[in-house]
Design goal:
The protein has 248 residues and is α/β, with parallel strands linked by helices. It is 46% helix and 17% strand. Helix 1 (16-27) crosses helix 9 (216-227), helix 4 runs parallel beside helix 5 (103-131) and helix 5 runs parallel beside helix 6. The two termini are 28 Å apart. One of its GO terms (molecular function) is oxidoreductase activity, acting on the CH-OH group of donors, NAD or NADP as acceptor.
Length: 248
């Protein structure tokens, strides 16, 4: 069933996987708030057909700023009605390994990937409770399961997102709110493709059971399903979209 222009909020929605999630939800019938801290990416999104048509709404926002989140979510619901779906996609990482991870980088990575997801989910869920309905999808990574190397803060933050999601599913279920997590594998975003050599990309492809990298649209389609009535009996789940890089 389509969203029938119900409101969905997608963080990190102006680029990469987030952009594909926005497109999938718009196709499913939602009006989508594109939440992003990157003003340049948001400015680019304003030139797209879905924004010009009013089906998507760019919102510049730092998800780690609780007061700003509360203000913007309040404004969105006042102007466009209750939030039917939230997708916590925003994330960031920095170079580093366990032995050289700095406290400053740890705090920054955890703040965006975990604390920001908590703030957005709590603010939106408090509004969803009044409607006794809603869907929340949190985006995690195979890094949380030791599949890829990288900074420990990112792996820890994404593992925290998965634990938080399950707790949310338990505590929000009685209010008609479903919470699921999409565990993302190596995905052919413009950011990845611009930074890896052909040999590195081939190594990444060989790490999957399908012999291919994921596409941002693969994530978008899964998220759209989890926000739809077709998944009305699905909650508390980790769903791997990784070509078999990680299997629950």
């Amino acid at each position: 069933m389509s969203g029938d222009r119900r409101l969905a909020v997608v963080t990190g929605g102006a680029r990469g996987i987030g952009e594909a999630i926005v497109a999938a939800l718009v196709d499913a019938g939602y009006r989508v708030a594109i939440v992003d801290v990157n003003a340049k990416a948001l400015a680019k999104s304003r030139d797209t057909d879905i924004v010009r048509s009013g089906r998507a709404l760019p919102v510049e926002l730092s998800i780690t700023d609780r007061q700003a989140v509360e203000r913007e979510i309040g404004r969105l619901t006042d102007e466009h009605g209750p939030i039917a779906a939230l997708v916590n996609n925003a994330g960031m990482t920095l170079p580093g390994s366990f032995l050289d991870q700095t406290d400053e980088d740890w705090d920054r990575i955890v703040a965006v990937n975990l604390t920001g997801s908590f703030i957005m989910a709590q603010v939106c869920a408090r509004q969803m409770v009044t409607e006794n309905a809603g869907a929340i999808v949190n985006i995690s990574s195979v890094s949380a399961h030791g599949v890829r190397t990288g900074p420990p803060a990112y792996a820890a933050a994404k593992a925290g997102v998965e634990g938080l999601s399950r707790l949310m599913a338990v505590q929000l279920g009685p209010f008609g709110i479903r919470v699921n997590t999409v565990v993302v594998g190596t995905t052919a975003t413009p950011w990845l493709l611009s930074r890896k050599t052909d040999d590195e990309l081939e190594t990444m492809r060989s790490s999957t059971l399908t012999g291919a990298l994921g596409e941002p649209e693969d994530i978008g389609a899964t998220v759209a399903f989890l926000c739809s009535d077709a998944s009305k009996h699905v909650t508390g789940q980790l769903i791997s979209v990784s070509g078999g890089q990680w299997m629950p």
